[in-house]
Amino acid sequence: MKRRVVITGGSIVSALGSEWTDILAKLKAGKNCVRRMDDWDRYARMNTRLAVPVDFTMPDYPRKKTRGLGRVAQLALVSADRALANAGINADDPELKNGRCGVAYGSSMGSIDSIMDFYSMLVMDDLSNMTATTYIKAMPQTCAANIGVFFGLTGRIITTNTACTSSSQAIGFAYETIRQGAQDIMLAGGAEELNAADAAVFDTLFAASSKNDTPEKTPAAYDKNRDGLVVGEGAGTMILEEYEHAKRRGAKIIAEIAGFGTNTDGTHITQPNRSTMGIAMKLALEDSQLNPDAIVYVNTHGTATDSGDVAESWATADVFQRPVPASTLKNYIGHTLGACGVIEAWIAINMMKEKWFCPNLNLEELDPRCGPLDYLTGNGREIDGEYIMSNNFAFGGINTSLIFRNLNE
Fold it and tell me: Which of 160, 211, 367, 370 could be a cystine partner for 218, CB 3.0 to 4.6 Å?
């Protein structure tokens, strides 16, 4: 018999804030967090100057446990620490160290500064910038490994470095690990630090917004006049737990993970595939044993790229066969890449519990090429329902879909 998996804690580090009251207030204010990055003017032939940085200060943790952390792992660790506290689990709890608690975590890459130190060695023939922690900060598994060491976790470690699906895959794989009985608790999530190179990746593909003089107007997912995405940064961690285990320790249960689906397109590295995107959603529905009509809201990937919005919206319409209520959070906080899955899912879960879902900011004129969905606009919408879906899609043709159930226990 498959075990039930619930969420008993969570926390994010984002431009909208970390506390739900602050996040909700900013969402309802109807303003995004996009800023013009004046220091990016030095990059010749890069068109975009827009990003969503996070105001972040690393807490005063013991240096012995944090000296191998670059910014991306710092963001991850802080969100993990706060998530455990939110779940009522002390950092010294023996349950973290008994082999039944693990971590599933991802990011697009390690810290860029440390990666640059390797580049400096190869170009300058000089190891002066390299230290014993350079690789630890640069390695792709830096977030998962450092979280595990900091809290003394001895269970499974799953690293999901799959770009924009890093953290949604982490949640999904952690869910499967607990459901199958291999672990009782999993810390699941992802992180990303901001750097100009991330913006350049999309700039070279003509997929980054260049509305540099009007940052408040972009990104504008699904809008006829959208011109691309805006990169952001942040981190998020959810505490996943086997249902009976959570009940025994008297944990508050925030939501249940009802279904997960993931697959790959197998067609193109950067061009989305409508058919396989839809299959990922169907896999999540099959896993949850739900009919599409049970889903009251879809939190979309919504990058504001030309082909991405069209393919995703039609894939969603194909699955639901009705104008399902839908909106994206990237119009508020930009594309947080490896962190977007967990940040967006955590906010969507809180909106579900609030019974209010945010509108698609900056959506003024719907692109007629997009699929027939119920794109939330205006002041958002009050919706009371039991199940929501959160979707993410990544370079490499990687697709994820998660279904969350509202539990009032």
Answer: 211
Q: How many angstroms from the chain centroid is the CA of residue 196?
A: 19
Q: Please identify every stretch of the chain with a pLDDT value under 50, giving residue numbers as ranges.
A: none
340 is catalytic: no
Gap between the Cα atoms of 291 and 320, Å rounded:
9
Domains defined along the chain, listed by start? 5-248 (3.40.47.10), 260-406 (3.40.47.10)
Active site residue 245: no
Q: What is the pLDDT of residues 328-348, one digit of tens each?
A: 999 999 999 999 999 999 999
Is the separation of the CB atoms in 170 and 105 below 8 Å?
yes
- Give the predicted TM-score (pTM) of the model: 0.97
DSSP one-letter code for 45: T
- CA–CA distance from 251 to each of 8, 132, 172, 407 (Å)? 6, 40, 21, 13
Q: Can 268 be counted among the known catalytic residues?
A: no
Q: Is the backbone peptide bond immediately before 292 cis, with ω within 30 degrees of 0?
A: no
Instruction: Identify the active-site residue in 143, 245, 335, 358.
Output: 335
